[in-house]
Model the fold of this input.
Amino acid sequence: MTVLPRIHHLNCGTLKPIFPHVPGICYCALLETQNGLILVDTALGTRDYLRPTLPVRGFTAANRMPCDLEETAVRRVQQLGFAPRDVQHIVMTHLHIDHTGGLPDFPDAQVHIHQPEYATAMHPRGPLAWVEYIPAHWAHGPHWTLHSEATGIWFGFESIRVLSDESYEVLLIPLPGHTPGHCGVALRAYDRWLFVLGDAAPPFYNPEWEQRYGPPPPWLLRFVGADRHLPRLQTLWREQGDQVQFMFSHDVLTFDELQKT
Done:
């Protein structure tokens, strides 16, 4: 008999980008609890592949994605033996195109988001806003739950408690930079933590990454806003790496390792 809670690691989109020429995935975490399922991010969804918008066409082409429906979060959930309605909560790192496309596939779920990120997505500005935030992804009217005030400290980082009981916790960890309201999501299953970094930092915690592909150039880190929190995250990894598993949203190498455990 499976002991709950349990974290499932999902590849919800294979990436083979033209630039940088480094393979990746769109990662989603699924926390299985006695009270239902909690999904972290949704990647691209079924409508993105069946009726893609122009920005989605550009994104899938630039990343040479197979656009395989079996890789969508809703199909991954079904492959595990669950129904889409079993996903009662979705916790978002941020609302960029490659994280939100699956929202319409779970219309009944409560969608938890940092309030500054919600405000940015609803009123986007800047020359790239039209390809970063896709209104079609929330045109169905999600059941938004906005979180703003910090409720505690998690390993030195401000945290916002989203969901919890005696056996699990789900926290938003504000890490603005990549977007104004970007957050990491910390999941605790009993005494172990998984820290979903979103796009806040590259996979600095996996030595194999640099051995294969070399260090990401500083200009790229600055461009995507992934340099702002890197020193603090590296300190957390050095001091608490035995308690906290790190996962960058596009890290295929660590994903493969997690699949073996």
